[in-house]
Design a protein that fits this description.
The protein is mainly alpha-helical. The protein contains six helices and two strands; from the N terminus they run βαβααααα.
Length: about 110
């Protein structure tokens, strides 16, 4: 919505799986844990890749237009949720290893 500057945290599913494995192996004391490799990927960048792969135009919408077009998903898509995994990294000695979101999306999965 708007400029698409709201951010979503991201991580590869294999990195997330390692966080949960480490939490189980070491006991979940100290949780909750945030398996986040990227603290905030701009939503407009995510939408641009999806649009390019699907050969669809990507346009900005006001919150009202987004609600009309996307329904319930508009509220979810519009939130800004930068998230840190610094505590998780320190407690579990975890570092993401996998590809970050945008390069992963650029693969031809569509």
């Amino acid at each position: 919505m708007g400029e698409g500057l709201n951010r979503w945290p991201a991580r590869h599913r294999f990195d997330a799986a390692r966080v949960y494995r480490l939490a189980l192996e070491r006991g979940a004391a100290g949780g909750p844990f945030h398996a986040v490799a990227e603290e905030g990927v701009p939503f407009k960048d995510i939408a641009a890749i999806i649009g390019r792969h699907l050969k669809l135009p990507v346009v900005s919408k006001t919150p009202e237009e987004a609600e009309q077009h996307f329904g319930w998903f508009a509220r979810f898509a519009g939130i800004d949720v930068p998230t840190s995994s610094a505590r998780t990294r320190a407690l579990l000695c975890w570092e993401p290893r996998e590809t970050t979101l945008l390069p992963d999306m650029e693969q031809n999965y569509f």
